[in-house]
Input
Amino acid sequence: MLIRFLQNNLLVSFVLTALRIYLGWIWLKAGWGKIAGGSFNAEGFLQGALKKAEGENPSVQSWWADFLQGFAIPNVGLFNVVVPWGELLVGLGLLLGTFTTFAALMGILMNFSYLFSGTLSTNPQMIVLELLIVAAAANSSRIGADRWILPYLQQMLNPRKSSEPSLKSA
Output
């Protein structure tokens, strides 16, 4: 019942739009700051996360430290591109209401990655807001570009469905 309310209520779509724009601005600023600065390097962050996996009460789990050491750090060049551009694109998607659910899901993925790396900050708050956007589905972008983009893509991917006569018109 709550999900149906989130997905269909017009007033909720206005609240979700405000949340979407708020989150989009945060992601856009974070990504653009890294891109425009021109010197973003994830290696220090990744090495710092590895250090948080040590000691009596580690804030980074050993399985995540293994991922960082075995994949992320050896491929830091990939992360130096994916992180800032991912943040920027998530921000644009949320701000414009374009591929909103996917943008929110990618935001959740990045927020959890930061949490797993021992960075609390605003990540839990952002995850909760992004989960609301995902749960609301299309209602979160009713006031956004998805209102036009998604039906167009649906027609492009399934042209037969849109050309079939409707039972309502008969």
